[in-house]
Design brief:
The complex is a heterodimer of chains A (about 775) and B (about 170). Chain A has about 775 residues and is an alpha+beta fold. Helices cover about 25% and strands about 25% of the residues of chain A. In chain A, strands 4-6-2-13-10-11-12 form a seven-stranded mixed sheet, with helices on both faces. Chain B has two domains: about 80 residues, Ubiquitin-like (UB roll); about 60 residues, DNA polymerase, domain 1 (Orthogonal Bundle), CATH 1.10.150.120. In chain B, strand 3 and strand 4 form a beta hairpin. The chains are: A alpha+beta (about 775), B alpha+beta (about 170).
Chain lengths: ~775, ~170
């Protein structure tokens, strides 16, 4: 089902863009031919293993690895001492490979061993003698904000590197970094109007404190990297990462090598979702440089769950006031985000996004990023946004209920649109919030009243919307005309989940050839033009512009050759389906194949086109979810009956791929809502470091998602394209938890709503004399 | 102690000396270079390492190489025949059932065995049948759609080698 809101040109005139196309690399994927990070090996390769801190907070007095070096098969050991102080940044985890003077979380890397076999490497870890002095630790962010909490800092603070978060959002989200104190590593505030007056004008005010758990991106492929340091000083690497140039720059800086001597080949990536950047690569790099042999390191799943960079837990207070007619008068919000052992959480984005979907005439938002002795967090698909939406959208539904309005009508009355401002003061371009809400209203699921079942299990419905700002980085692509008239596109951005196919569609469209005439190749960092990190949903948004520009450059050169051969003016050359002709003489033509032949032998040489692209600005993507659920009040088990995912894609270059993104993001949202949570014990140890106890949704847990593509033209994207990857994960957690609240007539404030939490909430409600049966009333 | 291992992998007889603690997954990936089976968890929870042993699906991360003594092992690399993908593989390609692709080999192997043994499952049975394989990208819908198309007999096996390109002939007299 696709709803086209605005269509600047007839899609029927298009060749392959806007057509559902199956993945160009589909056959490689289904035959096992696709090579992922761990699939690369080299002759004489060593295996690396990592020693991790057994304490949540401890001073490291000394590390003695002499015995490890004598162990069978061991070639070298690396520690923080192998990196110069001037390249290590105490406040940045990606630039602080091993714990230095202090280990800040249980599982922090302390040393690494390279040995002939993995077993040798692992055995040698036990021979490394580390003298730890355990220090008091703190795990709860609210406790960590108290004046008498243990303080968690490497060094004395200093400038915080927030590079990774900047990949995901092109929007300045930090109004003002206030003075940092204690374990609060960052604070932001956004204000507008008069908050007290705003609430005074309101007829209805609802508020709540919402918690969201720490969750893991849980890409199915663990981190893996292979490094090969050659005697000439070239460091060649094969790395599964969302940004091969980012890996290159990080490794070059830490190892003090020239950028062109660090050659990173991004591999096929088995999922990233924001979590695969530079965490692992420096370790095999330093081991290989020390050993002068290739070294491969592959993380285990438990290392992933203990020591990667999951998404942050948060505590968010939201208070919204509205008049009886549905006009919102005020929003107050406070975000406390647990960033773990290092700064770099999406706290400021999460705070700003509280006020991103609706017009709030009066607003007061503040956010605190708090350090704790847990693994430091990273980006996960629309970082921080699901946490924000969970809080705001549940309260929005309560307010709608209290004023007796349809929750979608209430949203439509207040929905943000072009020219309105986000909390950071930035005016919005033409976003699709209204169009997404209208598509939700039009959907048959919303149009059909929810009927209670006869099995005694209460049912409920929830709706929510959310948005993501997205990235808008610069990119480049080159296209070569090949001997048979086909084209090869060279890019430096990894193929996250099908963007390569979209780039091929753009090139084929511009070059006016069938898709089979175009292939896309990911070159290493020395071969390929720069491509941005595959984050912030920006790859197709920016690469479609650079691929189109490269195609135009190729066509310009081809027209020059064709014009010469046809004796015509290059401006008069027309082209289609692999041939060029002069407008004045359509019967005579030259084929692309002939043009390639001619060009190769000419003074101008083979035809290579280069294109640069950067969207003039980011343009947020909006998404909405409708969820119907049924709750077993005995066991707390939630069954999702209907799940609708609506998203504005601007212009869907490949609807098959866009639908896949909506479906996948929505189901990840089910994980947020019902299942996923990294649980710590009081010592700071992860209690569920495996996929049995850290439960992902399975095929048996989830329904089909009715994915609806809305297309509101974005003037900054190729043919109206907008960001796609991230928005779909933002509203499902809010919609599903809201549906459960609706079913039970109890206000619920936590994600995930595990069966245990639901049963406890029902018990509490009963103890407090609240109904736990089905009623039409909402929580009061 | 080294162990002389004999088995058949994707129809080819293999003789190797292995250490008894080596997992089948590592034997396939490191010794034979068959990297199609993936390690997603190492604990039998994700299904990415699924291979067929005498036709039955097994987690190769929980199986020792020596347990496959004398057996016929089929990995994802062994599912192509006559230069064509099998039906499950073909359906995955057509339905867009692969996104990042890391879970795909395990899914394809598992589903091939499941549909052979259960040619007409209901949707619930099918979903339960593949619930031992995790996918983080697709939300499973395209995978389930692909498998329904196999069940419905609507799949044409895709040829693996591309056709040579001949878009437009050279003009006459060239």
């Amino acid at each position: 089902m696709a709803k086209v809101v605005e269509r600047p040109q007839e899609k029927t005139a298009l060749r392959v863009a806007s057509k559902p196309v199956s993945r160009l690399d589909g056959i490689e994927n289904v035959t096992g031919a696709t090579k992922f990070g761990a699939d690369f090996s080299l002759p004489g390769m060593l295996w690396g293993a990592i020693l991790r801190s057994p304490y949540a907070h401890a001073r490291i007095r000394s590390i003695d690895y002499a015995k490890a070096l004598e162990a069978p098969g061991v070639v070298t050991v690396a520690t923080a001492a192998d990196f110069d102080d001037d390249v290590v940044e105490p406040t940045s985890r990606p630039h602080n490979v091993f714990a230095g003077e202090t280990a800040l979380y249980l599982g922090e890397a302390v040393a690494a061993v390279a040995a002939v076999t993995m077993e040798d490497a692992e055995a040698a870890l036990e021979l490394i003698e580390v003298d730890y002095e355990p220090l008091p630790h703190v795990l709860d962010p609210l406790r960590a904000m108290e004046p008498d909490s243990p303080v968690i800092r490497h060094g004395d603070g200093g400038e915080v590197d927030r590079t990774e978060m900047s990949f995901h959002s092109s929007v300045a989200s930090s109004a003002e970094d206030l003075e940092e104190s204690g374990n609060v590593s960052s604070q932001v505030q956004f204000g507008r109007g008069d908050i007290e007056e705003g609430f005074a004008e309101a007829d209805v005010i609802r508020e709540g404190r919402f918690t969201a758990a720490m969750v893991h991106q849980t890409y199915l492929e663990p981190h893996a990297a292979l490094a090969d340091y050659s005697p000439s000083g070239d460091l060649k690497m094969w790395v599964t990462s969302q940004g091969q140039f980012y890996v290159r720059d990080t490794v070059a800086r830490l190892l003090k090598l020239p950028a062109h001597k660090v050659i990173v080949q991004g591999t096929a990536i088995g999922g990233g979702f924001g979590g695969k950047m530079t965490l692992l690569a420096p370790i095999p790099a330093i081991l290989s440089k020390k050993a002068r042999k290739p070294v491969k390191v592959v993380w285990s799943r438990s290392e992933e769950l203990v020591a990667a960079n999951p998404a942050p837990a948060s505590v968010i207070d939201v208070k919204i006031g509205a008049k009886r007619d549905g006009t919102i008068t005020a929003l107050q919000g406070r975000v406390v985000m647990d960033t773990g052992a290092y700064p770099g959480s999406p706290m400021s984005t999460a705070t700003m996004l509280l006020g991103s979907c609706y017009v709030f005439p009066n607003m007061e938002l503040e956010g605190f990023e708090v350090l704790t002795n847990k693994v430091s967090v990273g980006a996960y698909r629309a970082p921080g946004a699901p946490n924000s939406a969970h809080a705001v959208e549940n309260v929005m539904n309560w307010v709608a209920q209290d004023i007796g309005m349809d929750p979608l009508d209430f949203r439509l009355k207040n929905a943000i649109s072009e020219g309105e401002r986000w909390p950071n003061g930035q005016p919005l371009p033409d976003v699709g919030a209204v169009e997404v809400l209208e598509a939700m209203k039009d959907h048959p699921v919303w149009g059909t009243p929810l009927v209670q079942g006869s099995n005694g299990k209460p049912r409920g419905r929830g709706a929510a919307i959310g948005c993501w700002s997205g990235g808008a980085g610069g990119s480049a692509a080159t296209i070569k005309l090949e001997a048979d008239g086909s084209f090869s596109v060279l890019v430096g951005t990894i193929n996250l989940t099908g963007n390569t196919t979209s780039i091929a569609q753009v090139a084929a469209e511009e070059l006016r050839v069938p898709l089979e005439y175009v292939s896309v190749h990911l070159g290493d960092t020395n071969e390929a033009p720069f491509g941005p990190v595959a984050g912030g949903s920006q790859v197709t948004y920016t690469m479609s512009l650079s691929a189109a520009a490269a195609a135009q450059d190729v066509l310009r050169q081809m027209k020059s050759v064709a014009a010469q051969r046809l004796g015509a003016d290059p401006d008069d050359i027309e082209f289609d389906e692999g041939k060029m002709w002069a407008e004045s003489d359509p019967d005579r033509y030259v084929t692309y194949r002939r043009i390639s032949d001619e060009a190769v032998g000419s003074a101008n040489g083979p035809i290579i086109g280069t294109g640069h692209g950067k969207p003039e600005r980011g343009n947020p993507g909006f998404a909405g979810t409708i969820a119907d659920v049924e709750v077993d009040t005995e066991t707390g088990l939630v069954t999702i009956l209907n799940l609708v995912g609506v998203q504005d894609a601007g212009f869907a270059i490949n609807p098959l791929s866009v639908k896949g993104q909506i479906q996948g993001g929505t189901i990840q949202g089910v994980g947020y809502a019902l299942l996923e949570e990294i649980v710590y014990d009081e010592d700071g140890r992860v209690r569920n470091p495996g996929l049995l106890d850290y439960r992902l949704p399975t095929a048996a847990d989830v329904p089909d998602v009715d994915a609806v593509i809305v297309e509101k033209h974005n003037p900054y994207g190729w043919k109206g394209t907008r960001i796609v990857g991230e928005p779909s994960i933002v509203p499902p957690g809010a919609a599903i938890t809201s549906a459960i609240s609706d079913a039970l007539s109890i206000p619920l404030h936590n994600m995930p709503l595990t069966p245990e939490r639901i049963v406890m909430a029902l018990r509490d409600a009963k103890a407090n004399g609240r109904s736990n049966g089905r009623s039409n009333g909402r929580p009061s | 102690m080294d162990y002389p291992l004999q088995l058949t992998v994707n129809g080819i007889p293999v003789k190797r000396i292995v250490e008894p603690q080596v997992r089948l997954l590592d034997f396939l990936r490191e010794d034979l270079g068959l990297t199609g089976a993936k390690e997603g968890c190492g604990t039998g929870d994700c299904g990415a390492c699924t291979v067929l042993i005498d036709g039955d699906p097994h987690h190769s991360c929980l199986t020792l190489a020596v347990e496959a003594e004398g057996a016929a092992v089929t990995t994802v690399e062994g599912l192509v025949s006559d230069d064509r993908l099998n039906e499950v593989q073909s359906a995955f390609v057509s339905a867009g059932a692969t996104q990042c692709g890391i879970c795909t080999p395990g899914f394809v192997v598992m589903a091939t065995a499941y549909l052979r043994d259960n040619p007409n499952p209901t949707d619930d049975e099918l979903r339960m049948g593949i619930a031992g394989n995790l996918c983080r990208c697709t939300g499973y819908e395209t995978i389930v759609t692909a498998l329904h198309s196999v069940i419905d007999g609507k799949v044409e096996r895709i040829e693996v080698a591309p056709e040579p390109l001949e878009l437009v002939p050279e003009p006459e007299g060239e």
